[in-house]
Amino acid sequence: LVRQDDIGDAPGPAKKNASWVWGHELEVFRGQAVEVYSKWMSDYGSLFKIRAALFHRDIIVLGDHAAVQQILADTLTYMKTPSFRPIIANIIGKGLLWAEGEEHGYQRRLLSPAFTPESVMEMANDMSECAEMFEDTLTNLVLMNGGSVTLNIVPYTSHCTLDIIGRVGFGHDFRNGKSTEAQEITASWNNLVNIGMTFAGFLAPIVLRAFPLIMSIPLKSIQAQGEVREITRKLAQKLIEDGSHSEKRKNILSILLTTKSDSGGLSKSQIIDNISTFTMSGHETTAGTLNFTLLELARNPQAQERLREEVRQYGGAISYDQVSKMEYLDAVMKEGLRLHPAFPLAERVAMKDDVLTLSKPIKTKGGQILTSFRVKKGQVFHIPYMAMQTNPNVWGENAAVFKPERWLTPCALPPRNELPRGWSNLVAFSDGPRTCIGYRLALFEFKIILVTIIRTLEFRETDYKVTQKISPTLQPVVDGRGGVLPLHISIAPQA
Ligand code: HEM
């Protein structure tokens, strides 16, 4: 029997196992990033229901790519939730990532010229210079320590990507992470990451969902978010003062500053908030993906060697054309983004009643088969991007294994009709009108940095056990500390 019904009877984990106050959400929080959702997805399929914390209406966890695509395409019906938006506002301000509706459309159109393929190509020199400073720093540390060193790679990668967004986005020099602003950004972000992993971090979004006005109540994690914002706001003020009297090429800052004078343009606080938004989302995301990809390469010496061989075929400065030709590099990057997306989970709420169509029918607890289902206004969805990209029912038994070759072998990928339509059939950059505006920049800088360091340096795994948590982006965790990823680094042997 195929019919349309609402989702009251959807499958899902037993209610008796949910906490009275925290629902199933505490269990999800305590696991590694989307670990529990992945397990439930294999137990109950690509649509299931969980009990929400603080007596909120049940949450639908949705991994069906067609229904997810429908949600991401319709940004007027499905918006970011009341528990998610205040947190974005608090960390990076009310910029593009926060805006909804017409305001979002306006800001998006305004800022898009900074991210065209041509604009990104022009960033190659700045990116290469920053990547070379990163390579020099690591090489010096290796040499100073007698030929090899074990270090936490996280701050070094962050400094490199912060340097890049500073230069290409704002014409600002963070001096390889040494400037006061860079140090303050790193320290406040690190604090936020670690507080976010505690119970206070769990509490913040669910309390906000229940009582959206609670921002004024001194929750520790909310204060830590505010700290990051204060620091980037201070930087933004400085950039506006410096930038207004110098001629710069078209970058994020110059676009923002030109709009100020237009009638109906952005207000000063929207400009400041967008500088904060791009400073943070423009560097922590790429750095995170790079860190985990380096870990995968450290764990897979053969893949690392194959990548190095490919890179060494090209000498000297790295151009856009050169990186575009490196096929294995491209496969390594896709695999890194598939297994470790910086945003492992998205939350959306339905603003009105709707009907979502599924790519594969599901069976309700009562035995009905649904090919589509009715959504009620106010329904909250969790879309676990990371679980979708590592779902063994779609990606096969080795779904969780780092295997760049799958991108290069004919027929090794799942059939297209089982995958989302986003970049490379992944959802790492989301999809639809809110797909990551910086994805071209991210892909190019990712490749330039990886090429630059992998040609001279060798990365090996250490004995530390690295796990993954969402706080607020995907973080490596060692012994309970977030933002820690030890790697063993030495000079790579010449071929
Ligand atoms: C590997 C690196 C990156 C990944 C995996 C990534 C991923 C994402 C994802 C999944 C979203 C959608 C978030 C949501 O809907 O809640 C997003 C949005 C966004 N990203 Fe990225 N991102 C990356 C790099 C960057 C870079 C380098 C920039 C800027 C230079 C950037 C700026 C933004 C902004 C401003 C948005 C909001 C776009 C909108 O809502 O219209 N991201 N990103």
From TrEMBL:
<keyword id="KW-0560">Oxidoreductase</keyword>
<keyword id="KW-0503">Monooxygenase</keyword>
<comment type="similarity">
    <text>Belongs to the cytochrome P450 family.</text>
</comment>
<dbReference type="GO" id="GO:0005506">
    <property type="term" value="F:iron ion binding"/>
</dbReference>
<dbReference type="InterPro" id="IPR017972">
    <property type="entry name" value="Cyt_P450_CS"/>
</dbReference>
<dbReference type="Pfam" id="PF00067">
    <property type="entry name" value="p450"/>
</dbReference>
<feature type="binding site" description="axial binding residue">
    <location>
        <position position="436"/>
    </location>
    <ligand>
        <name>heme</name>
    </ligand>
</feature>
<protein>
    <submittedName>
        <fullName>Cytochrome P450</fullName>
    </submittedName>
</protein>
<keyword id="KW-0732">Signal</keyword>
<comment type="pathway">
    <text>Secondary metabolite biosynthesis.</text>
</comment>
<keyword id="KW-0349">Heme</keyword>
<keyword id="KW-0479">Metal-binding</keyword>
<keyword id="KW-0408">Iron</keyword>
<dbReference type="InterPro" id="IPR036396">
    <property type="entry name" value="Cyt_P450_sf"/>
</dbReference>
<dbReference type="GO" id="GO:0020037">
    <property type="term" value="F:heme binding"/>
</dbReference>
<dbReference type="GO" id="GO:0004497">
    <property type="term" value="F:monooxygenase activity"/>
</dbReference>
<dbReference type="InterPro" id="IPR002401">
    <property type="entry name" value="Cyt_P450_E_grp-I"/>
</dbReference>
<dbReference type="InterPro" id="IPR050121">
    <property type="entry name" value="Cytochrome_P450_monoxygenase"/>
</dbReference>
<dbReference type="GO" id="GO:0016705">
    <property type="term" value="F:oxidoreductase activity, acting on paired donors, with incorporation or reduction of molecular oxygen"/>
</dbReference>
<dbReference type="InterPro" id="IPR001128">
    <property type="entry name" value="Cyt_P450"/>
</dbReference>
